[in-house]
Amino acid sequence: MKKVLLSLATTALLCTTSVMATTSAEISKNAVKSAKSEANNQHLKVVKEAVEAVFLTKTVLNDLEKKDLKRAKKDLESAIGKLEVILAHKNAPLMLPIDSVVKATEYSGDLKSIKTDLELVNDLIDDGKVQEARRLLNRLQSEIDIITINLPLVSYPAALKLAAKYLQDNKLKEAKDILEMALGTLVQNEIIIPLPLLKAEALIDAASKIAKSDKNQALKHIDAARNELKIAEALGYTSSSDTTYKILDEAIDKIEKEIKGKNRAEKLFEELITKLKEFKDKAIKNIDTKESEK
Fold first, then answer.
1. Alpha helix positions (H), 24-67
2. What residue segments make up the domains of the chain, in order of their start?
3. pLDDT for 153-171, tens place per residue?
4. Tell me: the pLDDT tens digits for 63-116?
5. Residues 192, 284: contact at Cβ < 8 Å?
6. Whose CA is closest to 32, among 208, 156, 206, 200?
7. Are 149 and 291 in contact (CB under 8 A)?
């Protein structure tokens, strides 16, 4: 996952190579497009043996439902064999991806519409219309989600071996319970990357490249970046970083004043880009959830 995060952390900057003839809207659009492409290209590939082991685990449960003990033993042996191949590797990972998908949701409204929707959500909750509020809240997101289902190599093979022992002892219920428990230990990992922060970073970088040659367009990029930060804040994309939206907004104000004045903002741009990158990277959420908890 770290490679994905590092790559996406630079995507917004890479998409601004031809900023001289690019509007703020195009900068934002390119940042999102590049991030989506990068996520799709680099999200984790599934481990074939782990996928097959999970499929066989489910097959064993089906065998037991059909009272086919001989087939169940054979399928379970095959499942264990698939994981033994991985366990034989010296640097086998603790988590084995068995499924991976990338979803992108971009909020199309503006700051005013976000505030209006949030007020409506509060009204719906006050009226006890929780499900309507939930559906509305689901629209209030602008992010790339990289979702991976993982098999825990530490516990899953051991569970299959215990189930195999139960089958040998003709303890079918115990074997079934262990297999169902094993499937419940699959872990969903979700990486959430806020799009407004990606856009803001790209816009600030674009502005830094044309501040000397096209002051007016640079100021437009900066204003658009400030707006994206306000949208990110309104949508609740926060960070554990000490860098707050207020600090970023103050840094943007300083750059604007410098561009309108002597226009020696190189150092200010460097500092802002560093702060924004730090904030964005720490705002990226990495959430693990067991399948049994979903």
1. 24-42, 48-65
2. 2-21+195-285, 108-141
3. 999 999 999 999 999 999 9
4. 999 999 999 999 999 999 999 999 998 888 899 999 999 999 999 899 999 999
5. yes
6. 200
7. yes
